[in-house]
Amino acid sequence: MATVTTSSPATLQSCKHASHGVVRYCSPLPWRRRSYSQVSTRATASSHGQPSATTGGRVEAPVGIAAEAGEEGDSIRRLQNGPDVRGVALEGEKGRPVDLTPLAVEVVAESFGEWLREELQRPEGEELRVSVGCDPRLSGARLSAALFAGLARAGCSVFDMGLATTPACFMSTILPRFNYDASIMMTASHLPYTRNGLKFFTKRGGLTSVDVEKICNRAAQKYVARKMGLGSRGTPPVVMRVDLMSAYSQHLRDIIKQRVAHPTHYDTPLKGFKVIVNAGNGCGGFFTWDVLEKLGADTTGSLHLEPDGMFPNQMPNPEDATAMSLTRDAVLAHGADLGVVFDTDVDRSGVVDDTGAAINGDRLIALMSAIVLDEHPGTMVVTDARASDGLTRFIASRGGHHCLYRVGYRNVIDKGVQLNNDGVETHLMMETTGHGALKENYFLDDGLEGGVGSLIMDLEEPAESVLLRMNILGEPKHAKQRGTMAVEAFKNYIQEDKLSGWVLDDCGDCSVGEGCLVDTNDHPIDVDAYMYRAKFYNENMRPLGMVHVRQSVHNPNIALNMQSYLPGGCKSMARDLHERFLLASGVNEFLDTREVEKFVK
User: How many CB atoms lie within 10 A of CB 492?
Assistant: First the structure.
C-alpha cells in the first residue's frame, strides 16, 4: 500500500461510510485502515458468463440473464448520463423513484474495476490502485460503502479521499505522491440533493460515453444476477484513508505562484486582493482557506463555505440566478475585486467582477479566450454549440479560431484533444455552463477563474436568449429513443426544405458540419446525445437568430436554446418552430410542448 499523507490533527472523526445506519469512529492517523464488513456482497455476472481473470473463478451468471430480466438490467443502463453515471439516490422527487441504490453502485464499481484491469492489461493478482472522492450529499456515506465493496470485488485497492473535488480526483492519478491508476468522484454536480452519481478518471482523463456504456452493460448483467441471489459473498473491503486535498491545494498554490512570479512577495502574490468565494455548501470551501488566503488574498465575506448535503442556501451552480445575485451583493458590500461561484464538485465556476457584473456563459469563455490568445496567438478555442455568433467574432478579432461542437463537457474536451492530435493547436476548451479545460493542465475539466470585465467590453451579446424545455412523454425506458427521433426529425425537416428559412450551421473550421453534430474527422467522436444548431432567416434573408435543439443527457427532455439578434426574435422563432415543425411533424404526440405554447402566446 502507498504511504498515506495526513496533515490534519488526530481528532476523533466519524467514519461515515457504513451501511445499515452503522457509524463507527476512528482516529485519522497515518496508515489507518477501515474494514467495511457491514456491506453484503455476492458473486457477480461477467459479460461472458464464465469465470475469468478478473473474477478469480467465482460463480458467474449465465449468458442471457440480463435479456431474460430485461427491465431490471435496463434500469442500470438508464443510469448512464453520457460519460457519467447519475440517478436518484434519495426519496423526495415526484415521479422519480430511487434508482441509484447501493446494489446499483456496487455492480457499476465492480464493472469499472474489471474494465480498468482489461484496459491497463494488468494480470490477475497485480495491484490496481483506485482513489475515491465525494461531495457532501446525504446519500454519499451509504453509497460509498457500496462503491468500496464493488471495487474490492474487482481486486482493486481502495483509497478514500473523503470530501474532494472532481479536478482533485483526476489529479490523484497524476500527483507524484499518489499516482493512482484511476479515480472515481461521487457527485451529481449541480443537481438536487436527492441525486447522486459517479465520474470516472484514468491517467488519460475522463472516460468516454462509449467506455461508460460498456461498463453499464456489464453492470446490468451483474445486477440481475445479484437480484436472483446467484453467487457467494465477496471479501469485505479494506479501505485506506488518504489526505489528497492538502497536496492538491499545494499544487494549485504552486501554479499560481509560478504564473504570477511576483517580484517582491513571491509566496503571497494575491496580497492586497479581495476575493469572495461562494461554495454553495458544496466542496469548494477549501479554495478560500487552503489556496486564496495562503496566497495572501482577503476572503472576508465569502459565502456558504461549509459542506452541507442539503444545499440549504442555494443550488451550487454558476448558472443559478440566486447564487450569482448573492455573490454580486457580497462583492459590492465588501468592495471585493472578484467573486467566484463554484458548483458542487468545483469543476465549473462563474465570476462576478468588481462592478457586480456577472461573467458566465459566453462572457466567461470570452474572458478566458482573451487571456489564452494573449499567450498563444492563433489558437483554436472549442466550445459547445450554444455559444453565440458574437463570441465567434470576439475570438476572431483577437486572431483566434472558434470550433463549435456538441454539448457535453467530455465532448468539448475530447474534440480539443482530437484537434491537437491532428496538429491544430487548441489551448482552450470550454462549455457555456462553465466547464473548462486547458491544454497545459492535462486537458483537465476544471472550474476556471476569471479576471476583470474590461477584457471583454467589446463582446457582442444576443439581444435575447431563451431556454425552453419539452418533456418526453411515456415510459422512461423509451425516452432516449424518442428524444433521438425528435431531434433527427428537426434535421430532416430542414434538409427536406419543409422549414424554409432554417439552415443547419456549419459550426466552424474543425471538421464539423450539419448543425455541429456530424464529425468528418478520420476518427470521429461517438455521439452520446443528438443535437443540432440551425440559423433562422426572415423572408428578406435577414438573420433573426439561431436555435440549438438537443437531447438532455440528464433528464428525459428536449432543450431549445434560442438566441435572437433582434428584440422579439426568440418569440418569432419559437412560433415558427411550433407551427411548422412541432405540430406538422407529429413529434408533439410524445413531447410536452406546453412551455413552448405558453412562450409564444
Answer: 12
